[in-house]
Amino acid sequence: MSVETPENPVGSIAARAKAILLKPKEEWPVIERETTPSGEIFTRYALPLAAIGPVATFLGSQFFGYSVLGVSFKPSLGGGIAQAIISYIFSLIGLFVICFVANKLAPSFGGQAISRNAFKLVVYSMTASWLAGIFGLIPSLALLAIVGLYSFYLFYTGVGPLMKVPADKALTYTIVTVICVIVLYIIIGMLTAGLSRMIGVGGPTIGAVTQSTQGGTVSIPGVGKIDTSKIEQAAKDMESAAAAGDGKSVEPAALQALLPASIGSFQRTAVESMRAGPGSHAEGTYEAGDKSFTLKITDAAVMGAMAGLGTAFGVESNKEDADGYERTSTKDGNLVVEKWDRSAQNGSFMTMIAKRFMIEADGDAASIDELKAAVATIDPGKLAALTQS
Predict the structure, then answer these.
(1) 272: how many CB neighbours lie within 10 A of its CB?
(2) Is 34 in a helix, a strand, or coil?
(3) Which candidate, 340, 354, 355, 348, places its Cα nearest to that of 371?
(4) Mean pLDDT, to the nearest integer, of 283-288?
(5) What burial class does residue 230 get, using C-beta atoms within 10 Å of its C-beta: 0-12 exposed, 13-18 middle, 19+ buried?
(6) Burial category of 11 from C-beta neighbours within 10 Å (exposed 0-12, middle 13-18, buried 19 and up)
(7) What mean pLDDT, rounded, does the chain reach?
(8) DSSP for 261-281?
């Protein structure tokens, strides 16, 4: 298999992305034998895939804006475009820096410094991270960007075939490289935020990242601790889940049909559905007096199966103060995220089902329990049945 062909470059991107995501151990030896120039890999593979995140985030911010504990924010059109461009440029610069680091570190772990192979290793392992950027299209799905962590596993499986790092040192080499990458992205984030402020672009900020090689863990505020010892099994689970289906999401209209006409004292006043990228989405608006919330159902298909990695990694986080709290946890094998603002009586509750469906209630309510009850109205059995039709 070759990465690109003049006759069908787009099709070859799709084929390579699918192969590296689902069968990395079989694909890396193929990649190692390829002689495609680095320039072509960069222009035909890296450039278009790296643009997914910035473009999706820009569109999502313009259509939906951001909302955190009842506070909404929508960047200006010019500011959003500028921020997307800045993010895109720095991500490409970061790509070359990571390649340099990976190449220089290899000999220290018994491998070989092969610049062309280092470039291929980094570019193709970034596939999961770049594709995960599609979730920026709908801000409420931003948490699913965690599927980009699968890139760590792709890198790990490729260091042997491409950088000739011995199997007993591959994980350590990966961890050290990942730590360097995390530090790099902290710097990139600071530079992006700094330039954004200079041009008058504001928005949500992300806390600093901390890491520790003790016990093989990497900690990311707002996401949690990643146990690298579980990467192998989590990846196998993802591959099995992805192979079990055809990669297609269910019809948006089918999701919309699951939204109840009423939930307690709340009546449904509006409904809509859509297909976005690899997934489908439906939501209803519910009102009772001066309170209202939206109930959303999203099928992330194969990408949702990859999001299941988050539960395998034991993702947990908690932030609480006098005004409210934000929590991410795993319950019965499903990722659960809840936020609540006590004074505004506003928040959200989201859970994943079957490693592909997200159900979320977001808005005003008497308590978080009302939002949890709204999510519980969606029957998991009926959702599962949709995948068989």
Answers:
(1) 13
(2) coil
(3) 348
(4) 93
(5) middle
(6) exposed
(7) 74
(8) SEETTEEEEEEEEEEETTEEE
40-78: pLDDT as tens digits? 898 889 888 888 877 776 666 655 555 544 445 555 556
Alpha-carbon Rg of the chain, whole angstroms? 21
Do 309 and 147 touch, CB atoms closer than 8 A? yes
User: What's the pLDDT at 378?
Assistant: 94
DSSP 249: P
* pTM beyond 0.85, yes or no: no
Rounded to whole angstroms, the Cα distance separating 170 from 24 reads 15
DSSP 144-163: GGGGGGHHHHHHHHHHHHHH
Encoded tokens for 95: 């790509």
87 membership: H or E segment, kind and range? helix 77-105
CA distance 185 to 191: 9
φ, ψ of residue 358 to 5 degrees: the values are -115, 130
- The strand order across the sheet containing 334-341 reads 262-263, 266-276, 279-288, 291-299, 357-364, 346-353, 334-341, 324-331, 317-320
Q: Are 259 and 278 in contact (CB under 8 A)?
A: no
Residue 102: burial class (beta carbons within 10 Å; 0-12, 13-18, 19+): buried
Sign of the torsion formed by the C-alpha atoms of 272, 275, 277 and 279: positive
Q: How many CB atoms lie within 10 A of CB 31?
A: 24
> pLDDT tens-digit profile of 167-203?
888 888 888 887 766 665 565 555 555 545 444 444 4
* Amino acid identity, position 91: S
Task: Retrieve residue 109's tokens.
Answer: 């772990």
pLDDT at 93 over 50: yes
**In the structure, what pLDDT confidence band is assigned to residue 302 with cuts at 50, 70 and 90?**
low
CA separation for the pair 52, 81 (Å, rounded): 14
More confident residue, 94 or 369: 369
Set out the domains of the chain in order of their start, with CATH numbers. Answer: 9-221 (no CATH), 252-386 (3.40.1000.70)
Cα–Cα distance, 252 to 310 (Å, whole number): 25
**CA pair distance 258, 78, nearest whole angstrom:** 38
